[in-house]
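User: Just a sanity check before I run the rest of the batch. Below are the structure tokens for the first item. I only need the designed sequence back.
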């Protein structure tokens, strides 16, 4: 602590602020507790490997969790949903976003467009080298199962940005008056070595210090993290801790000081929800819709196994005089002749295994429908990796309509915050090329547009409208040619390129197009002038040739040439 500035020491030792932050976290955890029973069922009957609801017991991390899954179909269906979301929204194999500006007029500058596209390419490279795609895969899986997910987006010296995804039960959130997530808290445990590495030796409590000195690597100590918006942030003031977002780390119990207080230029966390009701904190997703069928499926599978076992190895009624009957294959039990007919099953099963299998298949189909498997399996299919957005839209228009509000929610709560935070981090650290002169001071007016397969499929409704309008105009042009004057062909082709996610590099800027057309018009005008000159020169050449022939012709009474020129016979 001796080397730490006094102002930072005062911040860490502010006991009143610490008390308020502990109170906020306690209230967030209490509000979360009413959702935990449902989350535990979702974890138990869909994918037990996700979800942590016992943060006090670190020894349970490696224990088996799938005792309730006799039939793994719900886990497979949920995994297909997450993989489909990942392939359709943020596939690493194809561009899934583009950068624009809120100012439409400024965004039309070709130099600005090229700069934004180069920035996008750099950001795609950053994502490929970091763990962002792994984080997004975890986000999609958590959303599919629990309807809520979370991750921290941290600035990293090696990769520009690095993510820490969490599973359900590890975090808690709260929302502001507009329903936006404004608080994020997490309770977790660290070893003494991890505590010293993360926060420093001097700020840790005596128990941690003693464990660290004793090289105790098995003892865990509870830590709480809280991130919230800084309501006292002043953009025009330079001061320690003057950031839009603040984070607080502290030990649970009787600790009287913070472990760490930090600040962020942008919101460092994301907590997306599949869908929310009113001003709800946590969301619900496909897992909630499929939970009842998932529980029934496990019950049906258990009954089916009992039915199969009862038929294969029924309970037997055996006379006391016989004693034990060896029922293993190939074994013999010697009994009196009079007792043979008395050895029989206690009861005959009347259930039909075929009926049970049909019911199981019906439940599997209902679970698959709840997780949008028919749509997402097609997206991630390897049979047709070149499938276009139009094909997706045509085959699954109804599913896409149902997913439309979900996709917008994911854009607003996952992809836009991720993209803007990455952009700001890269801009601050000089990873982008020089900003164009037209864009100086306007970098913050960034607008993110999404061109993923699912996003394009949502916008494909515009493309048929364009094509039908052009087809109708072409048909009517045969009757009334002036009808095509209503269509701006430049606007049509640019809009079609936007809908289909064409790269900006393949489109010329408006100034370049104008210049090219002027050059073409000048060339055509010159060509016309040359043709006109050639046409005017031909009669002149004919006249000169006629004069030459006339001068060379002797003048006689029988001259046929002169007579012809004069109109004679």
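Assistant: Here's the designed sequence for the first item:
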């Amino acid at each position: 602590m001796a080397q730490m500035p006094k102002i930072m020491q005062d911040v860490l030792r502010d006991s009143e602020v610490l008390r308020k932050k502990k109170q906020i976290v306690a209230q967030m955890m209490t509000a979360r507790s009413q959702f935990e029973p449902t989350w535990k069922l979702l974890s138990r009957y869909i994918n037990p490997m996700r979800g942590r609801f016992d943060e006090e017991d670190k020894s349970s991390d490696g224990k088996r969790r799938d005792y309730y899954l006799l039939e793994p179909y719900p886990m497979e269906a949920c995994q297909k949903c997450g993989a489909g979301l990942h392939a359709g929204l943020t596939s690493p194999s194809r561009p899934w976003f583009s950068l624009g500006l809120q100012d439409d007029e400024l965004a039309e500058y070709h130099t600005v467009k090229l700069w934004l596209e180069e920035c996008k390419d750099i950001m795609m490279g950053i994502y490929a080298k970091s763990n962002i795609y792994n984080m997004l895969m975890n986000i999609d899986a958590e959303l599919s199962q629990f309807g809520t997910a979370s991750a921290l987006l941290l600035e990293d010296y090696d990769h520009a940005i690095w993510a820490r995804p969490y599973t359900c039960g590890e975090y808690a959130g709260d929302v502001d008056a507009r329903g936006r997530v404004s608080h994020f808290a997490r309770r977790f445990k660290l070893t003494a070595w991890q505590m010293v590495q993360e926060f420093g030796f001097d700020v840790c409590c005596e128990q941690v210090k003693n464990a660290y000195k004793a090289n105790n690597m098995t003892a865990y100590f509870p830590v709480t993290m809280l991130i919230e918006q800084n309501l006292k942030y002043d953009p025009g003031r330079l001061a320690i801790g003057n950031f839009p977002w603040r984070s607080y780390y502290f030990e649970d119990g009787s600790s009287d000081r913070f472990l760490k207080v930090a600040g962020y230029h942008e919101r460092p966390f994301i907590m997306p929800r599949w869908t929310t009701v009113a001003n709800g904190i946590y969301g619900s997703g496909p897992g909630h819709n499929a939970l009842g069928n998932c529980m029934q499926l496990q019950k049906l599978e258990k009954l089916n196994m009992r039915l199969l076992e009862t038929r294969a190895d029924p309970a037997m009624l055996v006379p006391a005089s016989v004693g034990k009957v060896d029922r293993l294959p190939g074994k013999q039990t010697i009994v009196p002749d009079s007792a043979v007919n008395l050895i029989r099953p206690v009861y005959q099963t009347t259930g039909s295994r075929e009926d049970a299998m049909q019911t199981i298949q019906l439940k599997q189909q209902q679970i698959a429908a709840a997780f949008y498997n028919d749509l997402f399996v097609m997206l991630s299919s390897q049979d047709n990796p070149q499938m276009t957005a139009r094909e997706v839209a045509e085959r699954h228009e109804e599913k896409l309509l149902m997913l439309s509000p979900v996709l917008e929610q994911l854009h607003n709560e996952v992809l836009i915050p991720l993209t803007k935070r990455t952009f700001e981090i890269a801009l601050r650290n000089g990873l982008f090329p020089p900003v164009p002169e037209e864009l100086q001071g306007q970098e913050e007016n960034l607008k993110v547009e999404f061109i993923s397969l699912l996003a394009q499929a949502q916008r494909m409704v515009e493309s048929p409208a364009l094509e039908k309008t052009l087809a109708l105009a072409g048909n009517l042009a045969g009757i009334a040619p002036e009808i095509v004057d209503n269509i701006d062909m430049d606007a049509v082709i640019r809009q079609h390129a936007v809908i289909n996610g064409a790269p900006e590099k393949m489109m010329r800027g408006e100034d370049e197009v104008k210049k090219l057309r002027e050059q073409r018009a000048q060339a055509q005008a010159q060509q016309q002038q040359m043709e006109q000159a050639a046409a005017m020169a031909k009669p002149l050449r004919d006249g000169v040739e006629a004069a030459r022939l006339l001068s060379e012709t002797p003048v006689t009474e029988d001259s046929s040439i002169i007579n012809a020129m004069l109109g004679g016979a």
